[in-house]
Recover the amino acids of this structure.
């Protein structure tokens, strides 16, 4: 009976599914590649509910705020935190790349690489938007268009506008915010149903990854992959660990609390696949609904710690592998460029690789054809990027909530002490007040 109860736990099921996916992809590669629709289908089911959850949570939260200046302060502090920590992540990747030099000894001749392999990514990067175009892209063409297309930042914009409008409407706005809360509960319930399919999605995604790229690709560039995973782990435990400690909680307990979400991300290589669950858990940890609703979605474009580490580390790897000399001034220029190009990445699988292509396009010393070296292992590093991004955004939410005095520290301590096992048996923090 104990074993059966253990197998009913979601994170155990996901772990087993990941192991089976690896085995199928390694033994029957063609079958593994054909499993891709399972992973894609699961992510699409989750993304189906992401936009409505963000809209209802943010709009309803702002509608209940009596002090609009407080919301402006929340947004400013969120962006300041994102910029500081993102810069730290870029710097860590740059420092490790200089010290470890994972590309040393490859001696790759760029002329011997197939330029068509990286051409598709380079073209996508070349079509990237300027700063003004990027700002205009934040404005959706229609109100429902952003919701239909799942554009998170556009959804955030219309949610903020809706929240402000409700706040101006007095009693009627209060009734609207109540309706939004009720609608959000429906979509969270949908998420709870869909997440039961996480083992199927993880099995399909992992089977595809191993079947398509093979373990040989992982072994061939193992030094880079190992360096990236180790650097990300150090960043989470040391940098984010210190930030978490200053905010009054343990990074290890927090990681244990979101272990189900981390395993789903490991299987699907997409942090967006657990966005609604993370929003719910952060509220259970005592963070205010408005803070959670603003920080998490914004962080998916502006606070991608794993992607930032990857960009500077991978760029130095390519320079070292192709024997392209880079001075300290050029490396600092790379850091400055990456601070801008990293803001274009999102939680979707593969976005980090396209952003890397955009960075190389701005730093012409490194041949763009060298991207072909990373194609085979990028999917393996995508998992680590997504995991680091998820932890980083979770920590950011709790820190900003503490900064804004919108964090119930007693609830946080109690929840982290109890762990996630009894989460569904306890109501959301502040639910009684709603």
């Amino acid at each position: 009976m104990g074993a059966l109860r253990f197998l009913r736990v979601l994170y155990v099921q996901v772990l087993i599914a990941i192991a089976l996916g690896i085995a199928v992809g390694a033994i029957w590669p063609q079958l593994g590649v054909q499993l891709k629709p399972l992973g894609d289908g699961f992510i699409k089911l989750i993304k189906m509910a992401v936009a409505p959850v963000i809209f209802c949570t943010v709009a309803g939260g702002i509608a209940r705020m009596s002090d609009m200046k407080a919301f402006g302060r929340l947004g400013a502090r969120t962006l300041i935190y994102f910029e500081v920590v993102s810069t730290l992540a870029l710097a860590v990747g740059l420092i490790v790349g200089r010290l470890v030099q994972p590309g040393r000894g490859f001696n790759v001749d760029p002329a011997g690489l197939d330029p068509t392999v990286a051409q598709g990514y380079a073209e996508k990067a070349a079509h990237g938007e300027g700063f003004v175009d990027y700002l205009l892209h934040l404005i959706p063409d229609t109100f429902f268009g952003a919701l239909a297309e799942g554009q998170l930042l556009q959804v955030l914009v219309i949610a903020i506008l809706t929240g402000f409008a409700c706040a101006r409407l007095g009693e009627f706005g209060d009734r609207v915010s109540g309706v939004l809360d009720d609608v959000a509960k429906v979509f969270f319930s949908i998420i709870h149903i869909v997440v039961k399919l996480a083992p199927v999605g993880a099995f399909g995604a992992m089977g595809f990854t191993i079947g398509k790229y093979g373990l040989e690709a992982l072994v061939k560039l193992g030094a880079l992959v190992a360096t990236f995973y180790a650097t990300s782990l150090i960043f989470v435990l040391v940098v984010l660990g210190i930030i978490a400690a200053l905010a009054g909680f343990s990074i290890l307990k927090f990681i244990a609390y979101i272990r189900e979400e981390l395993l789903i991300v490991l299987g699907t290589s997409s942090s967006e696949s657990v966005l609604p669950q993370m929003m719910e858990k952060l509220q259970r940890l005592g963070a205010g609904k408005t803070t959670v609703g603003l920080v998490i979605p914004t962080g998916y474009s502006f606070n991608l710690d794993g992607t930032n580490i990857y960009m500077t580390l991978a760029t130095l790897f390519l320079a070292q592998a192709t024997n392209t000399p880079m001075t300290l001034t050029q490396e600092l220029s790379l850091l400055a460029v990456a601070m801008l190009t990293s803001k274009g990445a999102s939680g979707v699988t593969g976005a980090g690789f396209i952003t890397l292509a955009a960075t190389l396009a701005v730093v012409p010393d490194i041949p763009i054809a060298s991207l072909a070296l990373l194609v085979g292992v990028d999917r393996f590093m995508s998992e680590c990027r997504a995991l680091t991004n998820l932890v980083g955004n979770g920590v950011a939410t709790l820190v900003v909530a503490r900064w804004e005095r919108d964090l119930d520290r007693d609830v946080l301590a109690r929840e982290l002490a109890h762990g996630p096992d009894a989460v569904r048996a306890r109501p959301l923090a502040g639910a009684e007040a709603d």
Summary: The first helix runs from residue 2 to 7. The mean pLDDT is 81. The chain has one domain: 9-425.
